[in-house]
Amino acid sequence: MKVVLATKNLGKVAELGRILAPYGVDLVPASYQPGPETGASFAENALAKAVEGVRETGLPALADDSGLTVDALNGMPGILSARWAGAHGDDRANLELVLGQLTDVPDARLGAAFVCAAAYALPDGRSQVVLGELRGTLVRAPRGSNGFGYDPIFVPDGYALTSAELSPEDKDAISHRGQAFRALGPLLAAALTTEP
Questions:
Q1: Triad 86, 180, 78: Cα angle to 5°
Q2: How far is CA 57 from CA 6, 11, 27, in A?
Q3: Is 65 a catalytic residue?
Q4: What residue spans define the domains of the chain?
Q5: Averaged pLDDT score across all residues of the chain
Q6: What kind and span of H or E run contains 173?
Q7: Listing from the earlier edge strand, what are the strands of the sheet with 26-29?
Q8: Fold of 2-192
Q9: What end-to-end distance do the CA atoms of the chain give, in Å?
Q10: Active-site residue, from 65, 71, 90, 172
Q11: pLDDT, tens digit (0-9, with 9 covering 90-100), for 72-127
């Protein structure tokens, strides 16, 4: 079943395509420009984007909103992660701003989490949102070239490598996005095969 993924981020399309393959979901990237994220939470933003995807395409739609929450920054950048430095999607500037804000924070207080809200919306009005979270610690200098966003400065709990140093398969197995979409995948598959 074709399902639109409400993003133009091809890295995210590839990542979620791998994660959702076992559920028979054929992801297609958005052919429209997704609107701004104006919700007050990851869940609100994800659901709004999924509903917009249905409205724009008439297809079932998936969306997510995810970001980095830093303990020493009271959970920020949070829902502002993609535009923390101002311009949306400037990964390097966002990462450098977070590191700059943590300059005087002791290493022992560099706890953080990646959080993801994953949502689906169907043309018949049904929808669902699930959350995934990956705890870890930030490092002071970027490492690795796999991944995007804050991956180069985030070391998942129990690992020595940053998310950007992990293989795509290893990252998918533990990531916040992987957790959320593995939980959402069977729910979406069931919803697509049942009447409301």
A1: 25
A2: 10, 21, 13
A3: yes
A4: 2-192
A5: 93
A6: helix 168-174
A7: 26-29, 2-5, 61-70, 111-121, 127-138, 154-156
A8: Maf protein (3.90.950)
A9: 17
A10: 65
A11: 999 999 999 989 999 777 899 999 999 999 999 999 999 999 999 999 999 999 99
